[in-house]
Automatic annotation (TrEMBL):
GO terms for molecular function: oxidoreductase activity. It holds the Pfam family adh_short. The lineage of its organism: Eukaryota, Fungi, Dikarya, Ascomycota, Pezizomycotina. This is Reductase. SUPFAM superfamilies: NAD(P)-binding Rossmann-fold domains (SSF51735). Keywords: NADP, Oxidoreductase. It comes from Triangularia verruculosa. The keyword Oxidoreductase applies. InterPro entries: NAD(P)-bd_dom_sf, SDR_DHRS6-like, SDR_fam. Belongs to the short-chain dehydrogenases/reductases (SDR) family.
Length: 282
């Protein structure tokens, strides 16, 4: 059963209840300070997971239930910088003495620039954050996951842009395609060592990255207008579909991540799971 941890309806387990989903399990979540990472942190804490959250932006503890504070440990740092991933793992080791789940959420958007216009700085920034960091996080965590008798789980947050060439700029598209490839490689390589690795592919989510796309559509935020024009028809299709449907929330993506981390998904390994109300079929 999956519960909803929005501030009004946070799941309050009865005092005698032990949630078997997260009880005595530790999850590392990158990008925990906002959007999908924050919703995932709240949801996992509501299910009694211990959570180590890593983010370059400060974390607002007011966004957590007071009773969850003791199971949450936050590390502030830029994961693209040397030593930061190792520090996060060290904290997890001190905090829980075990790592059961890794969720790579941290990511940045590009400015829709195409291959003929992308700058070195943008390419390096987007690829470092969206692809290199998740792969290094997996490298650091896999030895710990292997030690879990009940198996370890990795969930990587990719994007519709991980399957489609027609929704983002070249850097974001390449980074998310790469992340799906890395996920599938880990799933196959470690399938007999108790590790599952899956990717979720959100469509347009109501979060800061989603809002930044909306700003960029209005010509703000340094968008490459020619690059954006090339993908605009596909975004228009998605926007049209959303006129009659509620927007996809960060919490809905978090629920999919929780499902993949749960025993209910124990035979699911190496999938690319869209969370997009069918936008990805275009
Ligand atoms: N919002 C969408 O519409 C959407 C759609 C598809 C995929 N995604 C993916 O979902 C993930 C989360 O997106 P979101 O909408 O929640 O964005 P967000 O900006 O709200 O959250 C991303 C978080 O990652 C953190 N972060 C960025 N760079 C970092 C770094 N170098 N080190 C540590 N932390 C860093 C940010 O501080 C932020 O808290 C991203 O990987 C994004 O590509 C988002």
């Amino acid at each position: 059963m999956l519960y909803t941890p929005t501030p009004d309806t946070l799941y309050h387990p009865p005092p005698h209840h032990v949630d078997p989903l997260g009880y005595s399990r530790l999850a590392i979540i990158t990008g925990c300070s906002s959007g999908i990472g924050l919703a995932t942190t709240q949801l996992f804490l509501a299910h009694q997971f211990q959570v180590v959250g890593l983010d370059i932006s400060p974390f607002d503890y007011n966004l957590l239930r007071v009773e969850d504070h003791g199971r949450f440990h936050f590390h502030l740092g830029d994961l693209t910088q040397p030593g930061q991933i190792e520090q996060g793992i060290q904290i997890a080791n001190h905090f829980g003495g075990r790592i059961d789940v890794l969720i790579n959420v941290a990511g940045v958007l590009d400015n829709f620039a195409s291959a003929d216009g992308v700058t070195d700085a943008d390419w390096d920034r987007v690829l470092a954050t969206n692809l290199t960091v998740p792969v290094k996080m997996m490298r650091a965590v896999i030895p710990h996951l292997k030690q879990r008798p009940e198996g370890g789980v990795i969930i990587n947050v990719a994007s519709t842009a991980g399957k489609s060439g027609a929704v983002a700029g070249v850097a974001y598209t390449a980074s998310k395609h790469g992340l799906i490839g890395a996920t599938k490689n880990v799933a196959w390589r470690f399938r007999n060592e108790g590790i599952r690795a899956n990717a979720v592919l959100p469509g347009a989510v109501d979060s800061s990255v989603g809002n930044r796309i909306a700003e960029q559509k209005k010509g703000e935020g340094g968008v490459d207008l020619e690059g954006y024009k090339a993908v605009e028809p596909v975004h228009a299709l998605q926007a049209k579909a959303m006129e009659t449907a509620a927007p996809i929330t960060a919490l809905e993506v978090a629920k999919t991540i929780l499902f993949l981390a749960s025993d209910q998904a124990r035979t699911i390994n190496g999938v690319e799971l869209p969370v997009d109300r069918a936008w990805g079929v275009v």
